[in-house]
Amino acid sequence: QQQVKQSPQSLIVQKGGISIINCAYENTAFDYFPWYQQFPGKGPALLIAIRPDVSEKKEGRFTISFNKSAKQFSLHIMDSQPGDSATYFCAASKGGYGGATNKLIFGTGTLLAVQP
Amino acid sequence: DADVTQTPRNRITKTGKRIMLECSQTKGHDRMYWYRQDPGLGLRLIYYSFDVKDINKGEISDGYSVSRQAQAKFSLSLESAIPNQTALYFCATSLGGKEEKLFFGSGTQLSVL
Question: How many CB pairs under 8 A join A and B?
Answer without folding.
Answer: 63
